[in-house]
Amino acid sequence: MEKYHQTEFTPRIGRPSTKLTPLRLTGRHFPDLIPATEKKTNPTRQCGICSRVEMNAERRLEEKQNINCADCETPLCVTPCSRIYHTVANI
C-alpha cells in the first residue's frame, strides 16, 4: 500500500465543466396548482417526466397533472417524477 500511496493531491484530468448547476437541482421546490385561465377553470398539463420517450419505456404515461413546480413552472407528478426532476442532472 505504501508503494502506491500519494501524499500530494492529483488534479482532475480534462476540461472543467462550463455549465452552471441548473436551478432545478438547487434549493427547495414546492408543488403548486396550475393557475386558471379565462378558457380553463381547472387546467391540466402532461407531466414533464412522464412525457419523455426515454422514461416511457419503464412506465406508462400518467394522467395529466394539475400540479407544477412553483419555481421551475414544470408540470410534474407529485411522486416519483418530482423527485427525479429535482435530483437527476441529466434527464
Sum this structure up briefly:
With 91 residues, the chain is mostly loops. Helix content is 12%, strand content 7%.
What count of helical segments does DSSP give?
Answer: 2
Strand content: 5-15%
Query: Cα distance, first to last residue?
Result: 40 Å
Q: Which sequence of SSEs, written as H and E, runs from N to C?
A: EHEH
Class computed from helices, strands and strand pairing:
little secondary structure
Mean pLDDT: 76
Tell me the number of strands: 2
The biggest sheet amounts to: 2 strands, antiparallel
The helix content is 10-25%
Radius of gyration: 20 Å
Shape: elongated
**Largest beta sheet: strand ordering:** 1-2
Could you name the ranges where pLDDT drops below 50 across 5 or more consecutive residues? none
Explain what the structure shows.
This is PiggyBac transposable element-derived protein 4 C-terminal zinc-ribbon domain-containing protein. Residues 1-22 are annotated as: Disordered. There is one protein chain. The chain is largely without helices or strands and 91 residues long. It has a domain at 35-91. It is built from two helices and two strands, in the order βαβα. It has a two-stranded antiparallel sheet. The longest helix is centred in the last third of the chain and has 7 residues, at 81-87. It is elongated. The model has no long low-confidence stretch (mean pLDDT 76).
